[in-house]
């Protein structure tokens, strides 16, 4: 730059140059400004070990590169150690150059996505209207076998799945029980039961919700061909926090039962409770009770209870212990009033764990 200033000075004192003085002065100021601006657009040398050197490349050969820096003068770097050389401005300059609105976009985008997920309806416009997406729950299997003077085998399976929206929830469940014994060469199946159902909840506010439900049951050894119960009513979120959930329900149901040679229709009062308790990240308890009272005959009622303690060994796999009971004070064909069940086995968690 010194040669340039000398040349400009010479032009300024030459004869006939008076008319050019202002133009030359403006040109000199431009050159000074350009020189100062060029200094801020320094080269950035990125080394193969991740280090960066900022400065101006003054010499470059196949063996080395010389860089003039503001903090260490001229330094020499082996060419084999250089990954790339870029004229990009410093990282701090990039951040400073971005307006606040640009920096806020990722945060705003994440917030909008969270709000969208929270406000997502139970069923959307996805594949199959979103019916197959967003489910959480678990499936279990248990098997017991004993041999000796008599042989017995018990097989139990179950599945429970929940799909939640912002204001509603759908729960489906199913359970099976098969029990067989063999003695003196005679095999008897005393239980071949299958029962399940679904319940849809819709919140009116933070505590009150309405529900509709459908339950079914079959047990051929007891000559119960099929039982279908349609119900509806009002529920209350009595407790609802991160560790404990307790719902109380009340309503009416219609019981249609097919037995071996007859069909009955019975209106019933419905009451129930569902408790979920998370003891810690691995140990959980879940219990339900459903009580059905015959409206036309107060002497006839039945109830179903299920209580499960589960321990997660991994995020997906765990063990469970279930105590279940089905009671009917007026069973068909003089069969037992009470069916008690204790099972243990493995469970598999699916969906996003909570």
Structure summary:
This protein is of the alpha+beta class and 354 residues long. 16% of the residues lie in helices and 57% in strands.
Could you explain how this protein is built, in words?
About 15% of the residues lie in helices and about 55% in strands. The protein has about 350 residues and is an alpha+beta fold. The chain has three domains: about 1-95, SH3 type barrels (Roll), CATH 2.30.30.100; about 100-135, no CATH class; about 135-350, monomeric porin ompg (Porin, Beta Barrel). The chain has a twelve-stranded antiparallel beta barrel with strand order 6-7-8-9-10-11-12-13-14-15-16-17. Helix 1 (about 1-15) packs antiparallel against helix 2 (about 20-40). The longest helix is centred in the first third of the chain and has 20 residues, at about 20-40. It is elongated and about 105 Å long. Residues about 1-20, about 25-40, about 90-110 and about 110-120 have low confidence and may be disordered.
């Amino acid at each position: 730059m010194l040669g340039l200033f000398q040349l400009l000075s010479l032009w300024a004192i030459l004869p006939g140059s008076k008319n050019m003085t202002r133009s030359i002065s403006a040109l000199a100021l431009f050159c000074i400004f350009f020189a100062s601006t060029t200094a801020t657009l320094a080269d950035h040398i990125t080394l193969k070990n991740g280090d960066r050197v900022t400065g101006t490349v003054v010499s470059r050969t196949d063996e080395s590169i010389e860089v003039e820096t503001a903090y260490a003068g001229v330094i020499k770097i082996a060419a084999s150690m250089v990954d790339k050389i870029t004229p990009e401005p410093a990282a701090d300059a990039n951040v400073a150059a971005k307006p606040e609105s640009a920096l806020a976009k990722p945060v705003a985008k994440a917030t909008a996505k969270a709000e969208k997920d929270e406000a997502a309806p139970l069923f959307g416009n996805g594949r199959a209207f979103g019916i197959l997406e967003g489910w959480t729950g678990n499936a279990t299997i248990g098997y017991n076998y004993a041999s000796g003077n008599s042989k017995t085998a018990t097989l139990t399976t179950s599945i429970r799945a929940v799909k939640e929206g912002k204001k509603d929830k759908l729960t489906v469940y199913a359970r099976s029980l098969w029990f067989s014994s063999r003695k003196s060469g005679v095999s008897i199946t005393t239980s071949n039961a299958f029962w399940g159902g679904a319940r849809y909840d819709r919140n009116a506010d933070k505590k009150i919700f309405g529900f509709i439900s459908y339950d079914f049951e079959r047990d051929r050894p007891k000559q119960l061909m099929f039982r279908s119960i349609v119900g509806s009513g009002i529920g209350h979120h009595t407790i609802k926090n991160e560790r404990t959930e307790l719902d109380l329900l009340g309503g009416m149901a219609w019981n249609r039962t097919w037995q071996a040679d007859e069909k009955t229709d019975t209106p019933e009062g419905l009451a129930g409770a569902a408790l979920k308790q998370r003891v810690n990240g691995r140990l959980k308890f879940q219990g339900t009770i459903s009580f059905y009272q015959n409206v036309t005959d107060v002497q006839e009622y039945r109830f179903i209870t299920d209580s499960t303690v589960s321990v997660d060994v991994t995020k997906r796999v765990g063990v469970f212990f279930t105590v279940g009971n089905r009671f009917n004070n007026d069973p068909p064909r003089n069969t037992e009033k009470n069916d008690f069940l204790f099972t243990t086995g493995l469970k598999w968690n699916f969906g996003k764990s909570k």
